[in-house]
Amino acid sequence: MNYKEAVKHKKEAVNKADESLLKLYHIVITPANTDESYKYIEDFTKNPEAFDDESCKKYCTDDEFEVVSFKKEQ
């Protein structure tokens, strides 16, 4: 999906998510390309506060995105 579609999808996912889920998991937009997504998530987990939805764009080379969730570091 393109970036606009990913933003819409993320918004829907966050709105449907239970409060406890949001405390335990990050819901983020990442590049659809596996290598680019891995690099983005790796950098994101080092300092989540430094990232916003737009941050994923600089990791993406083909304008294809997806919304993923993964467990927050404790």
Outline the structure in words.
This protein has 74 residues and is of the alpha+beta class. It is 45% helix and 19% strand. It has helices spanning 3-16, 19-24, 34-46; strands at 25-31, 65-71. The chain has a two-stranded antiparallel sheet with strand order 1-2. The protein starts with a helix and ends with a strand.
| SSE sequence, one letter per element | HHEHE
Q: Report the sheet with the most strands, covering strand number, pairing sense and barrel closure.
A: 2 strands, antiparallel
Write down the oligomeric state.
single chain
Model regions low in confidence, pLDDT < 50 over at least 5 residues:
none
* Ends apart, CA distance between termini: 31 Å
Dominant shape: globular
- Strand content bin: 15-25%
Q: From the alpha-carbon coordinates, what is the Rg to the nearest angstrom?
A: 12 Å
Number of helices: 3
- How many individual β-strands? 2
Spatial strand order of the main sheet:
1-2
What is the averaged pLDDT score?
A: 96
Helix vs. strand class: alpha+beta
Q: How much helical structure, as a percent, in the residues?
A: 40-55%
